[in-house]
Amino acid sequence: MKMNHLNLAVTNVPAAAQFLETYFGLRKQGGNQGLTVLFDDDNLVLALMKASQVSYPSTFHIGFAQESAECVNEIYQRLKNDGFEVKPPQRRHAWTFYVQAPGGFTVEVASR
């Protein structure tokens, strides 16, 4: 069995979609201020749905696995250069860092 759909409630659909397209290569298929659907390379459907506020648990996040530590470092540097507040990657369960995405959710970027 394969998971193929995830819906995230976000406070700013266009900003969240642009973030995921820019830094993680997701592709948008239609959308508006209230709902946008994105796809990854394996055709996972990620729906972003407008909410007036979001309150995810502190441990909740979505993750993007990278092929190498160098890829993790490159994404970190791009985010930092673009003004995101992000702590440098470090070795935990993987070479990883977390970033707050526009719209109110957390993203983990990691490589084993």
Automatic annotation (TrEMBL):
Domain annotation VOC: ranges: 2-112
Annotated Gene3D superfamilies: 2,3-Dihydroxybiphenyl 1,2-Dioxygenase, domain 1
UniProt-listed CDD domains: VOC
PANTHER family given in the database record: LYASE, PUTATIVE-RELATED-RELATED, SLL5075 PROTEIN
Name of the protein described by the UniProt record: Glyoxalase
Species name: Ktedonospora formicarum
